[in-house]
Design a protein that fits this description.
Length: 328
């Protein structure tokens, strides 16, 4: 009961923080891809992810409009590394590389296509395992905090030499603060069944954009992803981990020189099915998707119609030079 109260207190604290705007149509999904669990001291975990975001649905409020004149596609390549200094403390880094594509059907025929590719922003997260003194516990709670580093460019131009909008740039140009928590409860239905919940809150800051004459503030973002997974053996060597997760994300409008930008912000609810194939205690691959169940946006926005992703995970113990079990 005490552990449940701690979890609810943390999630309630995150959810009750004020939420300001963020352009929510595209961008690099860095915060939603942080999820490596706590391991014994000396463990190095590596995960490479490809994320494909197809944005073809045009919404105003909760209404989908019949508008196929705009298409957005975001390809993201993410590299996450986590090192556990001890059973209590760890540091997590995530770096990104992104390709943004936009296609607009012209009224007189033809298509105006804009493409940019570059390094995106990065995250450094300092993590603490709350129940580290009881390694046999079936409950795991990790909390983390750290900066988002503005490594990505914000000055890409379109084919006419005009500065691209903020959500089509690889970076945000601003230093942000990320607050993160990961809760795992093992053995809920059977020994291999896991309930997991990951919540994050990104507090953004203002950056100078548009040739440094405009203050642009991406909004603060809150999201939580939760669900269950299980493990099933495939012969004597392999196993498979199917999971059913749901993701809630909410933002409000962006601010330009302190004034709200109309066609930004929104509330989203996704179904996130995934499956992991475990080749050995050191190596696994995972495929996942994001299917929108509910969308409510500010103004008119092109939003995600679906997302697909693929990741490869590897871990080892650098002190004992032995491999570690893959995460559930």
């Amino acid at each position: 009961m005490i552990r449940i109260c701690i979890l609810l207190t943390i999630l309630w604290g995150l959810a009750s923080l004020p939420l300001w705007g963020q352009c929510c149509s595209g961008g690099v999904p860095i915060a939603s891809n942080l999820g490596l669990t706590a391991k014994p001291g000396g463990t190095l975990q590596l995960q490479a992810t490809y994320d494909y975001n197809n944005l073809t649905d045009f919404f105003t409020g909760t209404e989908e409009l019949d508008d196929d004149t705009r298409i957005r596609i975001t390809h993201s390549w993410l590299l996450e590394a986590n090192y556990d200094f001890s059973s209590a403390f760890a540091v997590n880094t995530l770096f990104s590389y992104v390709r943004q594509e936009r296609r607009i059907k012209l009224q007189l025929g033809g298509i105006d296509e804009t493409v940019n590719t570059g390094v995106g922003d990065a995250i450094i997260l300092f993590k603490y395992n709350v129940f580290h003194k009881n390694p046999q516990s079936k409950t795991q709670l990790t909390i983390g905090v750290g900066p988002k580093l503005p490594l990505g460019r914000i000055d890409f131009l379109d084919n006419n030499g005009i500065l691209l909008p903020a959500d089509l740039q690889p970076g945000t140009g601003a230093w942000d603060a990320l607050f993160w928590t990961n809760f795992n409860q093992f053995d809920i239905l059977r020994p291999t069944t896991l309930f997991t919940a990951i919540a994050s809150f990104r507090a953004t800051s203002t950056a100078l954009r548009n040739n440094e004459i405009q203050d642009y503030k991406f909004g603060n973002e809150f999201q939580i992803q939760a669900g269950i997974s299980d493990r099933f053996l495939l012969g004597n060597k392999y196993s498979i981990d199917p999971s059913i997760l749901f993701r809630f994300r909410t933002v409000e409008k962006d601010l330009i020189d302190g004034v709200a930008f109309e066609s930004t912000g929104g509330t989203y609810f996704f179904w996130v099915p995934s499956v992991s194939l475990n080749f050995s205690p050191t190596l696994s691959v995972r495929a996942f998707g994001n299917i929108p169940l509910y969308r409510e946006v500010g103004g008119g926005q092109v939003t995600t119609s679906y997302k697909l992703g693929f990741s490869v995970y590897y871990s080892l113990n650098t002190r004992k030079n032995t491999f570690l079990n893959i995460p559930n």
